[in-house]
Amino acid sequence: MSKETIQIPRKIANQLLHLAQTSSDIEVCGLIGSKHGQPCTCYPITNTAEHVQQSFQLDASEQIAAMVAMRHLDEDLFAIYHSHPRSPATPSYADLKQSAYPEALFLIISLNIKGVLEMRGFKINHNSAQEISLSLSA
């Protein structure tokens, strides 16, 4: 069985990695919109979790505003992203339980690797995660 690979534009990947690095003490989070299945816009959203160092919760009003902006730009929800400042780029128990958009890619950026940032993608459905290969595109 061949593993699905999703193309992430280098511009979007660099933006996500930069956001994670510049706020390395908290889990950054947000949405990515796409046109015709191609990711094109990053929507950073404030993390309103009680413990932002180890969990994330999208600010509800900012999430709605991002979804409205996507609709106006004729974009679809492509991915939900967040960072793990001190743990691997794999879905946590809370990530699995709180996932509400099974059609969206779930991107996790880890800062837990010495000198190297890691970004991995997953499809999460019914508390189960399937890793999706990522590759950078121009």
Question: Could you characterize what this model shows?
Answer:
The protein is α/β, with parallel strands linked by helices and 138 residues long. It has a single domain (6-101, 108-137), classed as Cytidine Deaminase, domain 2, CATH 3.40.140.10. 23% of the residues lie in helices and 38% in strands. It contains three helices and seven strands, in the order E-H-E-E-H-E-H-E-E-E. The chain has helices at 10-22, 60-72, 93-98; strands at 5-9, 29-35, 38-45, 76-84, 105-110, 118-125, 128-137. A seven-stranded mixed beta sheet has the order 1-7-6-5-4-2-3, with helices on both faces. Strand 2 (29-35) and strand 3 (38-45) form a beta hairpin. The two termini are 27 Å apart. The model has no long low-confidence stretch (mean pLDDT 92).
Q: Strand content of the residues, in percent?
A: 35-45%
Number of domains: 1
Q: The CATH topology, please?
A: Cytidine Deaminase, domain 2
Total beta strand runs: 7
- Read across the widest sheet, the strand sequence of neighbours is 1-7-6-5-4-2-3
- Major beta sheet summary: 7 strands, mixed
CATH superfamily: Cytidine Deaminase, domain 2
> What class, by secondary structure content?
alpha/beta
Q: Helix segment count?
A: 3
In short:
By secondary structure, the protein is an alpha/beta fold. The protein has a single domain, classed as Cytidine Deaminase, domain 2, CATH 3.40.140.
Topology readout:
Elements: E1 5-9, H1 10-22, E2 29-35, E3 38-45, H2 60-72, E4 76-84, H3 93-98, E5 105-110, E6 118-125, E7 128-137
Which key features would you list for this structure?
single chain, 138 residues, alpha/beta, Cytidine Deaminase, domain 2, seven-stranded mixed β-sheet, 23% helix
